[in-house]
Structure prediction request, 154 residues.
Amino acid sequence: MRKHITTITTAVLAVTLLAGCSGGGSGDGSGAAATDTAATKTAQAAPSQTKKEACDQLEDALRSFVSEQMSTSAPADPKSRAEVVDGFTDRIDAALPKVGNAEVKTDFEAFTKAAKGYADALESSGSTTSDAVTAAEAEVQRSLTAISADCPAK
Prediction:
């Protein structure tokens, strides 16, 4: 039987990995793949989808990233952690042009914006516990609430 991991589980796992763990890790950000933003901007409009179809599509796009990151805990260094978060949001940004469900797409866009804010706060503060990082983490959690409604864990 195919193991089914929903998008919300993937997103929560990644956020937990990045925000909830502070020990060890390689810290080199090598698991983050660069995306071709020009290609994503020129992608044609995606066909209409159900929420489940959109969630499944995003799950497929994120599964490889999460499995790459599972081998280590989140880097303790804020800059390295920010690089991992940026790699995660790059994967979502690359997948979103192909998502045809407007609600799921909008909620994941809000999530990536919040996650990028978290990465920026990590980089600018140089700390994983600063007020800016704590506020950014709260925004990520709020955005995950909307995703959870779209893509409930099963």
